[in-house]
Design brief:
five-stranded mixed sheet, two-stranded antiparallel sheet, 3 helices, elongated
Length: 166
């Protein structure tokens, strides 16, 4: 858990506390199966007092092991997330049940940082932009050596129309 003491910035109407540190994935409750992070997670940003709420603005980045969606090779790449969240004082009227709240002078920023990094991960990733992938016929990696397999498929419902062209 990552907790920040905000006593000093709450004393001033526009107080700001800078955040620049590294954390282990376990401190953000990120397991290896959720996101295979290499090394530490970097956090840069600030918490600002904007009157009745505290505003967290942060950039969270980490090096992540990934699996290419086309050729199934493992590679590593950077994952970056921008986090922007409001923290309301505990017991504030009109605050939604899922809003982030804080008690006394301590703010727990673990959950927004964790969510931001997990949600920034794309569903499909490529090892390189022009990855050719695996041949669906012979299973060869077309990035290593091209194959001469016929990968053109015709919908069997339209095969009869092909006879009219001949």
């Amino acid at each position: 858990m990552i907790k920040v003491n905000v006593a000093e910035i709450r004393k001033h109407l526009t107080g700001t506390k800078l955040l620049r540190f590294e954390a282990e994935p376990a401190e953000l409750d990120i397991t290896e199966t959720e996101l295979p992070i290499i090394g530490k997670v970097r956090i840069e940003g600030d918490i600002t007092n904007v009157g009745d709420v505290l505003l967290l603005k942060a950039l969270v980045s980490a090096r992540v092991n990934r699996l290419c969606s086309r050729c199934l090779k493992e590679f590593s790449a950077d994952s970056v997330a921008e986090v922007l969240e409001k923290y309301y004082p505990s017991g504030s009227p009109g605050v939604e049940t899922d809003a982030y709240v804080y008690e006394s002078d301590v703010v727990d920023i673990t959950e927004p940082l964790r969510e931001g990094l997990l949600l920034a991960e794309p569903l499909r990733v490529l090892c390189k932009e022009d990855c050719l992938g695996i041949c669906p016929v012979c299973g060869a990696d077309r990035n290593v050596h091209p194959c001469s397999c016929d990968t053109v498929t015709v919908d069997p419902r339209l095969a009869a129309l092909k006879q009219f062209i001949k």
